[in-house]
User: What shape does this take?
Amino acid sequence: MPKPKKRGSNHQRGAGERGRAGGRGLGAAAAGAAFAGGQPRNVQPFSDEDASIETMSHCSGFSDPASFTEDGPEVDEEATQEDLEYKLKGFIDLTLDKSAKTRQAALESLKSAFSSKILYEFIMERRMTLTDSIERCIKKGKSDEQCAAAGLACLLCVQMGSGIESEEIFKTLGPVLKKIVCDGTASIQARQACATCLGICCFIVTDDITELYSTMECLENIFIKAYQRDRDANGVSSTHNTVLHISALLAWTLLLTICPMNEVKKKIEMHLHKLPSLLSCDDLNMRIAAGETLALLFELARETDADFFYEDMELLTEKLRALATDGNKHRAKVDKRKQRSVFRDVLRAVEERDFPTEMVKFGPERMYIDCWVKKQTYDTFKEILGSGMQYHLQSNDFLRNVFELGPPVMLDAATLKTMKISRFERHLYNSAAFKARTKARSKCRDKRADVGEFF
Assistant: This one.
């Protein structure tokens, strides 16, 4: 049986180079799609093979020196970068395709690339084309396409950072996003994605305080409906708009962290007495979102006034303690475990003004999350960047500025070499860890163990 041809062989690469040299005028769309009798194009999605060595470093394994292999094939970074950019040009062209599936696939491929690489110069030259494509997909696309376009808009602003170019992007997309968020006839998923996008883009680019307040008001008008909705006899709310309310609340909370203190005081007075009602929602994510927002509001309130006093503190702490020790059988074990973990921290924040510090590792660096404001910001960007969060924390100037990490740390070849661990050493370490874990589990599972010795 003949062996299948390897993908990316020298023959194929040579053909691609010749076609690229002789047919660039035909448009980059030919690189990412193929026609089949007039049918929708089959878009080859962005994959790890399309990324260079710096792309692979976005994985969480980058923070572990063991992730470096001892010896690897040399890679022509310049040629790899050219190949990547050529593919991305094709995906950008395909966002204008007639087929909705092709457009959506192109948007998803661009999202994968933008979340795993820093492409500032490439995007800078094509920002208006990308903005127009995103605007068109949000306006005329269906639910899934709108969600993909909104996600790409977030990543576009993350790549560009805070500056004039990003402000131009937001001026174009902001009104469109607000229109979808407030449109009751649009799908819930599209409104949810646009609400998140609106909050993140405004957080990144807005220096105009008037635009900040306008965006917050738009989001506020969405989630305050969760306060007013009808409740059944058990006091538990039920609505299909819950996911939209959650996204609007979290986006609004993110923007609250950059508001002036006088505006923060107004918002605290307006919402601190109403948010506890959302703790009774039957949706776990809404309860968690409301709890974390309450913890953040208490943190901001105590920053503005060291003697801050909340009248209904006893009632609130009772409700939080009940959620932190919830044992209702009608809820899934995973949900109960997650809820108890979150509300133990929320209760400590409200009662004891305490926050459990978390440490995030990325490469040779460490970042400590020591307050609710920082946690809210980190969780938001981690949600949109996914596994690329570590890489962007290392290389993205905007994110490093947000988290006060200073300029990117440049590692020379000698430093990288000292971080390498041989494959044999890594194998020995994994084997030892596996044996220890197996022994510990076997001891707990051994049915012959004397139960009486544990009492």
Summary: The two ends are 65 Å apart (CA to CA). Residues 1-39, 51-72, 230-238, 447-455 have pLDDT under 50 and may be disordered. Strands lie at 358-362, 365-369.
